[in-house]
């Protein structure tokens, strides 16, 4: 496949997605109006929500967006850490290296120039509203730090391979001529050079960026991906680089078979209610306005001026009109008894929209002092059952892809030093990330409670049979609980150190016992010697 075929393939993907853009536009207009420019062009100063009657659907989407950030990436704690494949346990040296690497990676991510927080916040909004987001992770222009960016779904398309993995990403791009010169130098087209020399450095140039599997593109790459920057306007390849990673993360919430695009179950369920509540709110507001400021009836050719129904207003009436024929100016009688019914319907719609956005499941149960430990445990279990199906797939899609690509970029560019400096227990092992969140805190708390319950059960059983004390492996159980609650590895001695300490203690005990035995033996020998020396004297006295 050459660049022309790749460009035609991308344009075909953009063309096939036209109807999906209409859905995204309507979802954005109802839940995320700042992003409602899929099919229209907005100008600066546009009132994003000017055509809405109520902001409640927007607030629910915003709350879910904020909850995603709070649950997946709580800034007040270290929300990710390096780990190994399930079932593989590193030694203490490996744990310490992974803790150090976690801190190094966190500093790189939260560096002020990386724009990590900004990109993730924008991505949370797209993810909650449209069910997917496109973010890129790469080194910055100076190659001394990471750079995170979130892109408009309107500008991105992708295709999957036979394994269901993203094999090609194409992004439309409109950089200025000056930016192209700064990024690619002499590789830009002569027409772009002329634009700059003509004094128009801020003129935009139509470009595309492709990241495609090497096997799909030409099959000759030593590394698995090709990154191609293409000047569409001048049909010119500015850069073609074989690379190790895809650069783009396509993070999808819920997919359906047969489509590479995902959807948001929240907005899919809430869209009918959002349309309904907008119509109901407009009707209720209009009805309320009619009740408080009712329309007027005026007699023709009698009212001589405009009806001034504002406070202090004067309406002129023909002096010759006989009011026995009826009031020349009167209000239309309106029955307001339907207003409470409409308010109740709107309240029901708000409750349904709240449920659609899972907001009724994301509040940790409150604990009152009079609750027993069993009641607290049951409420925490209920919270976990409600929140886990929502955030577990998000954790792997959002946090998992972000951390995997970040770690790969830092590792291949010396962010963790030489790979040969890694402990032997980690070399050749696949790194997997473990995440911390309020949800995981609740799960870890359950593990700690189980440990305490085990201790209570053992203490009770020992009173019946002392041999039960040998049943639990207290050291293994305690290490598991300490790992679960996030105790740093450097606070805990390694297995070898613990075995050495136990061995030394046993040796000391054996030495003490031997010394005590020797002292007891010497005392016995001394006593026997004294007894033998005194025996002749005793016989003489007899």
Structural commentary:
- The protein is flat.
- The chain contains 14 helices and 14 strands.
- The strands form 5 sheets. It has a 5-stranded antiparallel beta sheet.
- It has 542 residues and is of the alpha+beta class.
- The longest helix has 47 residues, at 495-541.
- The chain starts with a helix and ends with a helix.
- Helix 3 (56-72) packs across helix 5 (116-130), helix 6 (177-184) crosses helix 7 and helix 12 (438-462) runs antiparallel to helix 13 (474-484).
Q: Encode the helix/strand succession as letters.
A: HHHEHHEEEEHHEHEEEEEHEEHHEHHH
| Shape field | flat
Cα radius of gyration in angstroms: 37 Å
**Unreliable segments (pLDDT under 50, ≥5 consecutive)?**
none
Residues in helices, as a percent range? 40-55%
Mean pLDDT: 84
> How does the helix and strand content classify structurally?
alpha+beta
Describe the biggest sheet? 5 strands, antiparallel
Query: What distance lies between the first and last C-alpha atoms, to the nearest angstrom?
Result: 123 Å
Strand order of the largest sheet: 4-5-6-7-8
- Tell how many strands the DSSP assignment holds: 14
What percentage of the residues does DSSP assign to strands (E)?
5-15%
Total helical elements: 14
Quick overview of this protein structure:
Helix content is 49%, strand content 14%. It contains 14 helices and 14 strands. The chain is flat and about 155 Å long.
């Amino acid at each position: 496949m050459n660049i022309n075929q790749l460009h035609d393939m991308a344009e075909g993907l953009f063309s096939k997605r036209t109807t999906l853009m209409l859905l995204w536009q309507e979802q954005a207009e109802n839940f995320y109006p700042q992003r409602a420019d899929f099919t229209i062009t907005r100008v600066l100063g546009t009132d994003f929500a000017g055509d809405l009657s109520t902001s409640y659907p927007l607030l629910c989407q915003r709350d879910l967006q904020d909850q995603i950030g709070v649950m997946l990436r709580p800034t007040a704690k270290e929300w990710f850490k390096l780990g190994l494949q399930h079932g593989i346990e590193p030694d203490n040296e490996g744990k310490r290296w992974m803790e150090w690497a976690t801190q190094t990676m966190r500093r790189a991510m939260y560096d002020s120039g990386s724009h990590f927080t900004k990109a993730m916040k924008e991505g949370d909004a797209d993810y909650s509203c449209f069910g997917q987001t496109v973010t890129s992770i790469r080194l910055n222009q100076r190659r001394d730090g990471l750079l995170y960016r979130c892109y408009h779904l309107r500008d991105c398309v992708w295709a999957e391979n036979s394994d269901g993995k993203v094999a090609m990403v194409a992004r439309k791009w409109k950089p200025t001529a000056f930016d192209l010169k700064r990024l690619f130098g002499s590789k830009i087209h002569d027409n772009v050079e002329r634009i700059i020399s003509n004094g128009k450095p801020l003129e935009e140039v139509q470009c595309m960026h492709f990241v495609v599997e090497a096997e799909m593109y030409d099959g000759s790459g030593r590394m698995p991906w090709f990154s191609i920057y293409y000047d569409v306007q001048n049909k010119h390849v500015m850069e073609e680089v074989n690379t190790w990673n895809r650069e783009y993360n396509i993070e999808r919430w819920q997919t359906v078979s047969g489509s590479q695009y995902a959807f948001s179950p929240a907005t899919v369920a809430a869209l009918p209610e959002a349309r309904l509540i907008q119509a109901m709110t407009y009707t209720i507001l209009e009805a309320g306005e009619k009740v408080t400021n009712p329309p007027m009836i005026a007699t023709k050719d009698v009212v001589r001026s405009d009806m001034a129904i504002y406070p202090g207003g004067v309406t002129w009436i023909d002096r010759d009109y006989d009011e026995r024929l009826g009031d020349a100016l009167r209000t239309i009688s309106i029955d307001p008894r339907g207003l409470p019914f409409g308010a109740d319907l709107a309240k029901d719609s708000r409750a349904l929209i709240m449920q659609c956005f899972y907001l009724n499941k994301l509040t940790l149960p409150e604990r009152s002092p009079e609750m027993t430990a069993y009641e607290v445990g049951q409420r925490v279990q209920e919270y976990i059952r409600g929140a886990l199906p929502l955030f577990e797939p998000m954790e792997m899609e959002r946090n998992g892809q972000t951390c995997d690509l970040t770690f790969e970029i830092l590792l291949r560019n010396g962010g963790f030093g030489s790979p040969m400096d890694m402990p032997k227990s980690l070399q050749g092992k696949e790194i997997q990330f473990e995440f911390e969140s309020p949800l995981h805190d609740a799960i870890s708390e359950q593990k700690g409670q189980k440990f305490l319950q085990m201790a209570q059960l053992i203490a009770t059983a020992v009173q019946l049979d002392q041999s039960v004390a040998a049943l639990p492996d207290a050291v293994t159980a305690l290490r598991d609980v300490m790992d679960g609650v996030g105790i740093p590895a450097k606070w805990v001695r390694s297995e070898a150190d613990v075995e050495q300490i136990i061995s030394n203690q046993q040796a000391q005990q054996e030495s003490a016992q031997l010394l005590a035995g020797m002292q007891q033996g010497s005392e016995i020998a001394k006593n026997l010697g004294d007894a033998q020396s005194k025996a002749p004297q005793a016989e003489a006295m007899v």
